[in-house]
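Hey L., structure's done. Input below.
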Amino acid sequence: MTSIPQQTAFRGPAGPSHRRATNPSRDIADVPSVELVSTTAVHLMSAAAVHLGLAEDLAEHRDLDEARTLIESLAGLVVAASPRLGHHHAAPLRDGLRSLQLAFREASPIPDPPGDAPGERITGPVYPSASQA
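Output:
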């Protein structure tokens, strides 16, 4: 992805301004929506995993309230975007979301009732498969 410098140079108070940098709105227009949605989803997934304590060296960052917010946000994004992304792009996002929802259930000392765990109001209840039980 292209970095977007934000520098602006001015020629005095009454003179015209000139941008030394690329126009950010033109840069972002060149990025396909599937890439933007996927990148955003991956950032939400990564942050949720850290707050769930899934990374051994980052266990001190465990914060289930933060994880809940991130998983809820991810669920909204994935469910809303999936029809437009197509199966090839949406399936891994749905799988990642489901994995985080299950990890939250496992990490939570007080389990949420079915349908009330993070994102489940959007995705429906999430249960471990028979092979994982």
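Strands lie at 8-10, 17-19. The longest strand covers residues 8-10.

-- N.
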